Every structure is written in C-alpha cells, then in structure tokens.
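Ticket 4471: requesting a sanity check on a complex prediction with magnesium ion. Repro inputs:
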Amino acid sequence: MANQASIDWSGVNGRGGQLSANSPLDQGGHQQSVIRQVSIIGGKGRDGLHDAIDRLDLNMGDVVSVVGPTGSGKTTLINDMELFADGDTPTGRRILINGETPPEVFRDDPSRNPIALITQHTSFLSDLPVDVFLHTHAGIRRSSSREADELVRQTLDFANQLTGEPISLSSSMTELSGGQTRSLLIADATIICDTPIVLLDEVENAGINRSRALELLRGYKKIFIFVTHDPRIALLSDYRIILRDGRIADVLKTDARERALAPTVARFDDVLSDIRDRLRQGLRIENFDFGDVA
Amino acid sequence: MKLAICAGTATTGKSALLHHVIPRLQRRGWSVAFLKIDVQYADEDERFARDFSIPTRKVYSGDLCPDHCNVMVLGDAVQWAEKSGADILLVETAGLCLRCAPYVDRGLGIVVVEATSGMNLPRKIGPILSLADIAVVTKIDRVSQAEREVFRARIMEAAPQVRIREVNALHGIGVDPIADAIARQPDIDAELTLRGNPPVGTCTICVGKKTIGWQSHFGVVRALENQTFYRGE
Ligand SMILES: Nc1nc2c(ncn2[C@@H]2O[C@H](COP(=O)(O)OP(=O)(O)O)[C@@H](O)[C@H]2O)c(=O)[nH]1
Ligand SMILES: Nc1ncnc2c1ncn2[C@@H]1O[C@H](COP(=O)(O)OP(=O)(O)O)[C@@H](O)[C@H]1O
Ligand SMILES: [Mg+2]
Ligand SMILES: [Mg+2]
Ligand SMILES: [Zn+2]
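Returned structure tokens:
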C-alpha cells in the first residue's frame, strides 16, 4: 500500500525479529526482570481537584490495595495503569515504568506488555472454546509456542483450584459461570501473561476460593495492585491508595498495629468462608467454636 | 487536501471515534470537513456541524452499495470540501456488502471493528479490513484484557500488514495516534483511484474501473447532488 510508509508507528504489531534482540530473557523466552518500578504521576479527580500525590512509586515486590466507595474511581485508576496513560485519559494521569515514559511497544505488542489486568468482567464475549482461546493467548504472550501446551495445562489447573465448578478445555468461553470466568482470568494473568505487574479488580466478588487465590498469588514476586473491599487483602498490602470522587485522596502505609491485626482478620475470614460454604452445601451449622478467633 | 475514509458496519463506533478525532485535529490547527455515506438514515452530519462548526454533508446510497456510492460521489465531495476551505476531508461510510472496500490511494483507510463482535469477525469481513491502513478496535472497555489480546491476534492473522489501535471511543482513550496518522497523511492526487479490486459484476465499477467520479462511469450512477440516474447509450 503506497501510503503505509507515512504512518510511523515503529514496532506496532512488530513481534518479529526485534523481540529478543536486547531484552534480558528468562528461561521462558520471556522478559520480565527489567521492570523495577511503576510510577503514577498525579492527575485530577472528577471534581477537577488534583490527586493528593504528585508522584507515587511502586517497587518490585510491593503489594498495594486501592480502596474507596463504589464509583470513586478505583477501576479508572488501574485502567490508567494498564493503558500506560500519558495525559490522554479523562484523569490526566501519567504512568512511568522504571521512571520513564513506557515505549509504545508495551501497548502494541502483548508479548512485551509488562502488565496483566484482571478486569471485573464476569462473563466472556469470546465465542471460542477455552482450549483455542488459551492456546492463542499463550502463543501471543510468549514468544515460544513450544511450551504452549504446558502453559494451558497449568492455567486450567490453577483456575480449577479457585472454582468449585471445574472448567473443561472443550467448554465454550461464553458458557462459563461468573466464578469460572474470574478463575480463568486470574489463572491466565498469572500463568500465561506472567507479567511483573498484576492489577486485580475486586477479585473477592468473584465466587472463587479467595484464600487459595491469595496463597497461590503470594508465591510470585511481582507488583500486585488489588482493587478491593476486602479487609484481609487491604491489611496484607504494603500501601492503601484511597480514592474519592475519582481522585487519589490519600496514600496510607500499613502500620504496625494494622499488621498485627491481619492474622486475626484472616482467621475471622476463614471461619466466615467456612460457614458460607457449609450453608451453600445445604449443611447445618452446629457447635461452631469462635473462641479461638475472637 | 488530505483524505481519511472511516469504514465499518453499523454501531461499531465510527461516529464516536470521529467525534474525538475532529477536535484533536482542530486543536492542531486543521480545518476539517465531514461527509457521511449511509444507506437510509444518518444524523452525524447535523451533530458534527453543531458540535464542531465544520462543513458537513450526508448522502444516502439507497439502492447502491455504500462503497459503490462512495466511488461515485467522492470526486465531487473533495471539490466541495476544498471549496468550503477544509484541509482534511473525513468520510464515514457503513461498508455493507463486505465484498468491496471504500479506500482510495493516498487516502488513509480506517476500518472500525468492535472488540465485542466475536473472534471470527476478522476472518469474515474481507477487503474492508485487509485493504485498510489502520484497524481501530473499539469498546475495549467491554471485554477483558485477555480477550482484547486474542482479538488483536485474530486481526493480525487475517490482515498482517494492517496497524491495530485499541480505543475506548466513548471516552476518547487511545485516539491521539489516529489523529496523528490523519495529520501525517500526504495530500491526495487530482485523480483518485480505488484501492484493491472491486468484485466481479456488471457495472463499470464492478468490472474493475477504478477511477473516482461518476463522470468516468456508465450505467446507473449518481452525483453528490442528485439521485441515481442512467448514463450511457
Ligand atoms: N462502551 C463503549 N461504547 C461505545 C464505544 N464506541 C462506541 N460505543 C457506543 O456504541 C454505539 C454506536 O456507536 P456509533 O459511533 O454511533 O457507531 P457507528 O454506527 O459506527 O457510527 C453508541 O451507543 C456508542 O456510544 C466504546 O469504545 N465503548
Ligand atoms: N479522575 C476522573 N476524572 C473523570 N472521570 C472519572 C475519574 N475517575 C473516575 N471517573 C469516572 O467515574 C465513574 C466511576 O469510576 P470507576 O472507576 O468505575 O469507579 P469504581 O471502580 O471505584 O466503582 C466512571 O464513569 C469513570 O469514568
Ligand atoms: Mg470498579
Ligand atoms: Mg455513525
Ligand atoms: Zn459493494
């Protein structure tokens, strides 16, 4: 096409030769050790007021919660991160990776994108079998397809540890229940994307085994950002970003007292989950011992 | 005069996209004119004239395929846009027949597809996708990141040389690079030529005559100003 030369989007769709040229690779043929930090450069809220921070640096290994009432802009904040906002979203925020404007190729080539976002969606619109979907995704997130079968197997195994209703490779994506959808999204982000930065939007509302999810996720060293209403996740984080009216209103570092509270909250949470499960299975609740918890 | 033709089936988000593109072009100092080609109903011309104070037109293709209609009227439309003082003509057309594509050489071809449309869509729509310069994927806010990535792979497989841009056309997220691409487009030539080969058929366009303007065609033709009429022996 005569006029294509005039559109200069270097690297767009270009997974070809340049992919492995200068990125440090781990054994999967997959770069990730390069990301050390992601930064949010403050923008403004719905009310036009500035975010309470000029710049917030999140470092490798940090676990961060984003909290605030419904409609306060939590999803919008993590969408800004996933889109590598550059003053071009309604919030005016900017995202830096390792202190610099991220290269275009992060947006344009999924195999180089260091961010995986687990959205709030509870259903898929993709009219593909689970098998084809996961294989295609593994093929584009990883440069080598040699390992695709193994990745798909691990992903399904991970997902099935989170949902009580096992997913089969032949089911159609659109048939999956809310819990199956969310389990698959978490597993896909963790195993197939396996990115250094993971954003999770209200995983607790998903009808999944939350304790198991946290346990499995904790096995990975990444920057985790949880949008959450869950006290257990919030207390487990290093920071809480507080949203109000679309604005970052505050950033709190989890203090020693809050940390000391976390194990008790976790035990409460387990007891409640257990009761919830029993009720769901049609069992009676008898002789429950709360003494140990409170 | 620069020309960008924005094609795609109904409700994919063409107007929503252009509604964000036009002010971005205006802010960079460009004067924009807008032409809408649709089969039987459109109000984008009134909306864009009101919102951006730009010259706009619409044409109903009626019995003609909108892409064929585009071939007929585009020559006139470029003259109209030039006379109205525009530097850029944006054309929105609902490509319906999926056998032809409305793009012309030296004009930027933009196809708009929605992320919600199903994974097989890129395999179904033919030249409107494969002959485009840019595929704009709208409604990314409605699907998961994983689905977006698989949809992108499906487009790349059907049309490897087409650039892909993902946008939320409702909030204008991701639109800047599309405005940039339009602004970087070279000026069009005096004679416009249709890109690719039209499908086999019996009218002069259908038999492969690619020159733009009803003056070069015979049979049932139409001008920007008139309804369809017969031209020939
Ligand atoms: N959620 C969402 N809705 C969109 C997006 N783009 C377009 N829409 C909606 O889709 C509908 C059709 O859009 P329109 O621009 O009129 O489509 P056209 O027929 O291609 O011009 C409208 O209700 C838009 O608001 C998008 O990116 N996200
Ligand atoms: N900083 C902002 N500027 C403008 N609009 C915003 C901002 N933050 C959020 N919004 C809008 O507010 C609405 C609710 O935000 P959302 O992120 O979905 O909230 P939450 O996830 O906390 O429920 C959305 O329509 C979003 O586009
Ligand atoms: Mg939300
Ligand atoms: Mg329209
Ligand atoms: Zn046609």
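Notes from triage: The pocket of zinc ion (ligand 5) is lined by residues B 65, 67-68, 97, 99-100 (CB under 6 Å). Leaving this open until the requester confirms.
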